[in-house]
Amino acid sequence: MDAMRAFCPRPGCDTVVQVRAASPAHCPTCRHDFCSQCNQEWHDGLSCEAAAATSSMAGAGAPLLPDSELIKLCPMCRVPIEKDEGCAQMMCKRCKHVFCWYCLASLDDDFLLRHYDKGPCKNKLGHSRASVLWHRAQVVGIFAGFGLLLLVASPLLLLAAPCIVCCKCRLCNPNTKNLEEVDEIESISPGREDDGDEITRARYLSD
């Protein structure tokens, strides 16, 4: 998600590299210099398209460009992803970002896959209508189950709330019992002092 950092594109090396504009990104782990825009070898003085065409003509394979039909870059971490089969809902193994293969739109919050109901990607998901409806029914059922559980548990929470919130309740707080014992002791102690005064007065009279 940080535009100033990128993953090293060399296989087996997942080092995060600092990116600077108009300069090659240098990996400190494998010593590999690459372009952070197209993840190719650093091409000084050439655009990414020209460098991709040169490498393709040299037999280096298909260019790793976002508009390629075979390989596209993850819109989040820019790692090359190849789609050989499956539906159009793609998930990057590196950053776990979910996106559409055709338009690279984010599908992280599209739990019901409404993206494929309209627009240029309509009916391009790659699944039958029945499977899409079954998927949506499962998602709605999960949310409905959580809502029903919360609805059932809410009366119990309301009944238990007074005991939880009222920390100064006499039945729940043992300190109130100690305060009552202190009050009883204080109520008894003045009588004992009066008895002591009467005893001392009796001694003075006897003397």
UniProtKB/TrEMBL annotation:
Q: What is this protein called?
A: RBR-type E3 ubiquitin transferase
The record's listing under InterPro entries reads: E3_UB_ligase_RBR, IBR_dom, TRIAD_supradom, Znf_RING_CS
GO BP field: protein ubiquitination
Q: Membrane spanning segments where?
A: 139-161
Q: Does the keyword Cytoplasm apply?
A: no
Domain RING-type, chain residue ranges per copy:
1-125
Keyword tRNA processing attached: no
